[in-house]
Structure formats: C-alpha cells, structure tokens
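Design review, sub-item: ligand-bound model
Attendees: FS, YL, KQ
YL presented the inputs for the NDP complex:
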Amino acid sequence: MTTEQMTKTQESLIASKPLKDQVAIVTGSGRGIGRAIAEALMAAGAKIVISDINEETCNQTATELRESGGDVMGVQCNVTVSDDVQKMVDAVTNNWGRIDILVNNAGITRDQLVMRMTEQDWQAVIDTNLTSAFKVTQPILKVMSKQRYGRIVNIASTTGVHGNFGQINYAAAKAGLIGLTKTVAIEYASRTITSNAVAPGFIDTAMTQAMKEEARNKILEKIPMQRMGTPADIANAVLFLSLPSSGYITGQVLEVNGGLYT
Ligand code: NDP
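KQ shared the predicted structure:
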C-alpha cells in the first residue's frame, strides 16, 4: 500500500465518524500534542473537552475548535489539584452525561543531571506527570465503570521506557505512568475499559523547541526516520487506541519515535 493509499484509508475511517456521540477529555490540550489529539478525536466525531492549566490557551483553543464545527467545552483545570479535577468531571458529566475517552497528556520537564536535581524539580515533575494521572483517572473510572465502557490513553515517553541523560525526574514519572497504565488495564478489563500508553520520541513542540540547538541536532542524528515527530504523528496513535474497534488492545505501550531506540 502506498502512503497516499494509506492516507485515503485513514481519511475514510475518520469520515465515517467512529467516535460519534462519544465524549473525550484531553488534559493539557491548550497547545502542542494535546491540541493535536483533541483535533484528531474531534475529526472522528467525538465531543471534546479542552482542558489546560493555562486559561488563555484553553479558551482560545476551545473557541477555535468550536468555530471549525466541533462540539467543544473548554475547562480550565490544573491536573495536580484534586478540586479542579472533580469540578471538571462534574462539569462534563452535567453537560454531556458521559465520558468515553480520557487522554492524560498534561506534562512538564525540569531537566537536570542526577547530582544537580533539586527536590523541588523532582517533585514538580512527579506531581504533574504521574500523580496527576492518578488524580484524573480515579474519578473518571467511576463514570466509565457505570457505562461499562472507556478508553484511557496515557502520554508517556520513550524516556520512561529507556531512560535519558539529564531526565531522572521525567524518566521516573513516565515509567511510573506506564505502571499505572498496566494496572488500570488489569483491574478494569472486565468493564470493557482499556488502558494504554503512547510513548512519543522527540516531537516538535514548545517542549523540545526549548532545547539547545546542539542537543536537538544530536537527537536528530539518532532518529532513523531523520526527522522529529509531529503532534499529528502522536494524535494518530491515540486515535487508533481510542476507537471502539481497538477494544482487545489493553495494557500496551506504543512507541511512536521514528525508529529511535529500536
Ligand atoms: P507542551 O509544553 O507543548 O504542552 C503541554 C500542555 O500541558 C501545555 O498547554 C501546558 O500548559 C499544559 N500543562 C502543564 N502543566 C499542567 C497542569 N498541571 N495541568 C494542566 N495542564 C498543564 O508539551 P507537549 O505538547 O510537547 O507534551 C505533551 C505531552 O507529551 C507531555 O506529557 C509530554 O511529557 C509528552 N511528551 C512530549 C514529547 C515531546 O518531544 N514534545 C516527547 C515525549 C513525551 P502551559 O501552556 O501553561 O505550559
């Protein structure tokens, strides 16, 4: 099959709106990978909750997606704050009555060598990239359990699978997120709820644009596909795992990294 044929197959799948009448929450979706995921799920017919700590990008993205024809709610939410999370869950269930898809995407980096890592930077990354997923997943599992249906996709990282120089806090948090993913998969399989992780390699967003050019070039040399990934590359993987037809895939980590580390 040629790339053009594959694109056409994907376009016709999306055009059939496989997520019609489903409700999807994507955390940290004001920009970057989260926004691309929200756009992909919306194109497949889902009602979308744009959720972000940053009220301005949250509202702006929600407005833009609504103007492009989507059914969209914007809810400002800091995923490290349980009260914020519960308010978001209540707002969504009051408005749409269900939650079918949860994408735990919000994340930060505070890179430093092991010996120079401060406890504050360690904790900030563990709180935002790992504990938050527990805080968001727990109340949403209650909703999904009642429905006896759900798709949870956690955005991990190749760093969580393989480790990375200067990222002890980030690697530990993302490895923990993979453990959380697999445990939810085991506990909730009987309720037709799947839980998977997508582990991106190096994706061209604000997060990686903050890296020094020398470091970016070094990484590029190691990627067999010879390019950084795009947010859409990750969104396509999340869409696949969110489909009703992906119901027998659970507890998996899908690395989307252009062949890096394989
Ligand atoms: P960005 O920094 O571009 O976007 C992250 C978004 O999450 C921002 O809108 C940010 O808000 C928001 N956010 C941060 N903290 C919180 C919080 N406490 N509560 C709610 N929202 C929050 O990052 P990416 O799009 O690149 O990354 C998205 C995910 O993908 C992250 O989990 C990241 O770890 C993961 N990832 C990214 C890779 C990459 O190469 N880019 C590689 C591997 C994994 P604000 O605007 O205030 O910063």
